[in-house]
Amino acid sequence: MNKMQDNTPVAASNDMETKIIETAKSLFMENGFTDTSMSEIAVKAGINRPTLHYYFRTKEKMFQAVFGMIISQIVPKIYDILLDSNASIAKRVSCIVDTYYAILLNNPNLPLFVVVEIHRNINHLLDAIDQSPMKLVLSKVISGLEEEMAQGHIKQVPINVVFFTFYGLLTFPFLTKNLSDRRAEDGNKPFIQLIDEWKPYIVMQMENLLRVE
Does the CA dihedral 73-77-82-87 come out positive or negative? Predict the structure, then answer.
């Protein structure tokens, strides 16, 4: 009983921090980093400014936490899938797309948010990456891909081409989601259906890029 009581403040603290991060993420995705204030985050989280500053003293620290949370939901899964040489290229790509779709369909503004941040202040984004597990895991992913290429499991392709091709195919529908939504209002297919139809073509393009003939 005492153990439970001792852990309660820690659990409550963790719950509040998670709530603040989720609130900040929602506002960042909706309004952008620049147009979101600490006061707005506090109000939407249902706390006052001193409480918010207890957890995150600056908006930059909050951005790092939001970005780190998003990365932690994606990167480890992708790493395990990508380097599973026992699975076919098509199977690996399909699983990775499903992993991203699970995040992006709940956060459809995320790709645009990242693009805006790249153009607004690339150093800000790179600092957030440096503070997250992404840098180390990304290095491992690149090394793993290079090893797969060296062993002849996948085709020798410049790493930047692999990333540009995959992320271009994956994110462009989300970057143009407003157009899809507008067309859906006119009786065309809804966005979710377009995404489902698009997935096999992502897999096919990546398979054609990486499959050893």
Answer: negative
DSSP state for residue 106 in the 8-state scheme: T
Q: N- to C-terminal Cα distance for the chain?
A: 64
CA distances from 128 to 10, 146, 168 (A): 25, 26, 22
- The model's pLDDT over 45-68, given as tens digits with 9 standing for 90+, comes to 999 999 999 999 999 888 888 887
HSE of 98 in the Cβ direction (CA atoms, 13 Å)? 9
Alpha carbons within 13 angstroms on the beta-carbon side of residue 48 total 1
Amino acid (one-letter) located at 20? I
Residue 32, sorted as left (phi over 0), alpha (psi -120 to 50) or beta, turns out to be left
Nearest Cα neighbor of 194 from 209, 178, 206 is 178
C-alpha span between 6 and 154 (Å, rounded): 52
Task: Convert the pLDDT of each residue in 81-133 to its tens digit.
Answer: 877 878 888 999 999 999 889 888 888 888 888 888 888 888 877 887 777 66
Lowest pLDDT segment from 107-121, 152-166, 175-189: 175-189
CA nearest to 85, candidates 26, 34, 147? 147
